[in-house]
Amino acid sequence: MKTAIHPQYYDATVTCSCGNSFKVGSTVEKITVELCYNCHPFYTGQQKFVDTASRIEKFQKKMEAARPLVKKAQKEDDKDNSPKTLREMLEALKKG
Ligand SMILES: [Zn+2]
């Protein structure tokens, strides 16, 4: 083993936001995580949203703000009577 090229090895303490903590080998002393084996939905069997930055709320606000625009766009689509298929175009020519 060469000297002075390897990082310091620690028995790092991993601390989860649920309060659980355990030790692992690492090059840093402390690790903070949001999910661990104690609180991850895969292991608990319960669904839980990890939404610390309230991203779901932000997304729902955006959707709410966009709703009028979507309706307006749909109305404009309904107004459009131009032929959409070749058959419709040919039928329009026969009529006209
Ligand atoms: Zn946890």
Provide an overview of this structure:
With 96 residues, the protein is an alpha+beta fold. The protein has two domains: 1-45, Rhinovirus 14, subunit 4 (Irregular), CATH 4.10.80; 55-96. The chain has helices spanning 41-44, 55-79, 86-95, and strands at residues 10-16, 21-26, 30-33. It has a three-stranded mixed beta sheet with strand order 2-1-3, with no helix packed on it. The structure holds zinc ion. Residues 16, 18, 20, 35-36, 38-39 line the site of zinc ion.
Structural class: alpha+beta
CATH architecture of the largest domain: Irregular
Query: In percent terms, what proportion of residues is strand?
Result: 15-25%
- Cα-to-Cα separation, first versus last residue: 89 Å
Largest sheet: 3 strands, mixed
Tell how many strands the DSSP assignment holds: 3
Radius of gyration: 29 Å
Which strand order does the major sheet show? Answer: 2-1-3
Distinct small-molecule ligands in the complex:
zinc ion
The unreliable regions are none
The third-level CATH topology of the largest domain is Rhinovirus 14, subunit 4
User: Which percent range fits the helix content?
Assistant: 40-55%
Output mean pLDDT.
Answer: 86
User: What top-tier CATH class of the largest domain fits best?
Assistant: Few Secondary Structures
Number of helices: 3
Tally of domains: 2
